Amino acid sequence: QVQLVESGGGLVQAGGSLRLSCAASGRTFSIYAMGWFRQAPGKEREFVAAISWIGANTYYIDSVKGRFTISRDNAKNTVDLQMNSLKPEDTAVYYCAAARVPLTTAQSMAMSDNNYWGQGTQVTVSS
After folding, report:
1. Contact call for residues 57 and 70 (beta carbons, < 8 A)
2. How far is it, in rounded angstroms, from Cα 102 to Cα 85?
3. Contact 84, 91 (CB under 8 A)
4. pLDDT band per the 50, 70, 90 thresholds, residue 20
5. DSSP letter at 53?
6. Which of 19, 49, 96, 110 has fewest C-beta within 10 Å?
7. Rounded average pLDDT over 35-63
8. pLDDT tens digits for range 79-111
9. Is 90 exceeded by the pLDDT of residue 53?
10. Distance CA 41, CA 109 (A)
11. Cβ burial 55-85 (10 Å sphere, 16+ → b, else e)
């Protein structure tokens, strides 16, 4: 059974930084794309960023390009999201996701909910 455990959320002022981390277990980690999604109060969950199974390709929503960076360490079974220049509109619960299908591309994760999910971690950005 796949397990995803997020950490690193918290409260930060606008312009600040946070680093989210996700630890994966339960299967061969390295052949699956990984990603981050978020859900703000009263809104639907949305895709944020994804990284391909070998880390060669990444994909971001436009609103975080240049501010967020996704990375993975297949030796440690972890995927991180470095978030810089945070804005109040980044406030949300952030969820780690692992594609159910092997060799999924980073871009395709943006258009699919066919993932395993972590429990979420709260990120709050104050103005």
Report:
1. no
2. 33
3. no
4. very high
5. T
6. 19
7. 94
8. 999 999 999 999 999 999 999 988 889 999 998
9. no
10. 22
11. beebbbeeebeeebbbebebeebbbbbbbee
DSSP secondary structure string, 99-123? ESSTT--HHHHTT---EEE---EEE
Kindly state the tokens that stand for 99: 């594609």
Q: In whole angstroms, what is the distance from residue 112 CA to residue 25 CA?
A: 21
Residue 31 DSSP symbol: G
Show the tokens assigned to 9: 């959320």
Q: Residue type at 79?
A: V
Euclidean distance between CA atoms 40 and 114, whole angstroms: 20
Largest CA distance in the chain: 41
Return the bridge partners of 119, or none. Answer: none
